[in-house]
Write a structure and sequence with these properties.
The chain has 340 residues and is an alpha/beta fold. It is 38% helix and 18% strand. The longest helix has 31 residues. The radius of gyration is 20 Å and the shape is globular.
Length: 340
């Protein structure tokens, strides 16, 4: 039985010739699935965080490219290529930091290019096949990450995590949380402290919800409680995901990750980064070269519809930060555990 089949929800799926995603902006109060039929709808879903998490964004973008090429009347490869480039630009303009988005779309572009001499309807079918493959590969990568990472967790251990690097962020069981699920399925008793993850509460709304769905012991903490918890609650390790890893090992991940890495280093707690190979970007030499997305001030000053700062307050709200490689104990990928 595939580990993904043990999950009690689906983050995304291609079904009945359209894309279906779980609307993460409605969690934890409502579990609502949305169907998408156009590339513009998919781009908006990515931009508005209805789907998020680097691997999931890449998969959804691949299916978005498929949708963008449907219901078109192409007379030549030149017309097809022009439309595909336009579709890909719509999707790449959504979020700049997660490398999986660009990785997946480049795969889609290459499949089309390599088959341009074929019937264009056949090319579109090959694009769909490639998107399905990207999804299936991510499921398998998550399972392997889970297996390698679970070996690092002891029975009765306690993990601190940040943001959401679970099934909601991938096409499978997740990266950081996939490790926890796998350890649990192996019979280990694992407890989790989850940062709320300001400003849009991916830890509170998503990670806590997801872990509860799977019966994992989870305790939610405010982001600024992490140091106190490390000092007093016997945290065995920190496990986080990654949106992009530079060639030197610097890690771009949800804002606040760098804080945890510094705190873990001070408290002599292992700091693990769990990510598939698709999140590693050999074209980026170091973290300083990673483009960091900035989010709307409203996410800080109008907290879920309620004003929490005076009108006109200036806001700086980067969505991600960069953790230097020297603060990472090990990277857990589908290929194994690579220690620094």
């Amino acid at each position: 039985m595939s580990s993904s089949n043990k999950l009690k929800f689906k983050t995304l799926e291609w079904t009945e010739n359209h894309l279906r995603i779980l609307d993460q902006t409605r969690l934890p109060e409502e579990t609502i699935y949305l169907d998408y039929d156009t590339v513009d709808e998919v781009a908006t879903a990515i931009r508005d965080l209805k789907v998020r998490g680097a691997p999931a964004i890449g998969i959804v973008a691949a299916f978005g490219a498929v949708l963008g090429m449907r219901k078109q009347n192409f007379q030549s490869w030149k017309e097809y290529e022009k439309r595909l480039n336009h579709v890909i630009s719509i999707l790449t303009d959504t979020r700049p930091t997660a490398v999986n988005l660009f990785w997946a779309l480049e795969r889609m572009r290459m499949v089309a290019e390599e088959n341009k001499s074929k019937n264009l309807e056949k090319v579109s079918q090959l694009l769909l096949n490639e998107a399905i493959s990207i999804h299936q590969e991510d499921k398998l990568m998550c399972e392997r990450i889970g297996e390698f990472g679970a070996s690092l967790l002891k029975d009765g251990g306690t993990v601190l995590t940040h943001c959401n690097a679970g099934a909601l962020a991938t096409g499978g069981i997740g990266t950081a949380l996939g490790i926890i699920y796998t350890a649990s399925w192996q019979g280990k008793k694992i407890s989790v402290f989850a940062d709320e993850t300001r400003p849009v509460l991916q830890g509170a709304r998503l990670t806590a919800w997801e872990l509860q769905q799977q019966g994992i012991d989870v305790t939610l903490i405010c982001d600024n409680t992490a140091a106190f918890v490390m000092k007093n609650k016997k945290i065995d390790c920190v496990i986080v995901g990654a949106d992009r890893v530079a060639s030197n090992g610097d890690v771009a991940n949800k804002i606040g990750t760098y804080n945890l890495a510094v705190l873990a280093h001070f408290h002599k707690i292992p700091f693990y980064v769990a990510a598939p190979s698709s999140s590693f970007d050999p074209a980026i030499s170091d973290g300083e070269k990673i483009k960091i997305e900035e989010r709307s001030a409203d996410e800080v000053t109008n907290w879920f519809g309620k004003r929490t700062a005076p009108s006109g307050t200036k806001v700086y709200s980067p969505a991600f930060d960069v953790t230097p490689a020297e603060l990472v104990t090990a990277y857990i990928t589908e290929k194994g555990v690579e220690r620094r």
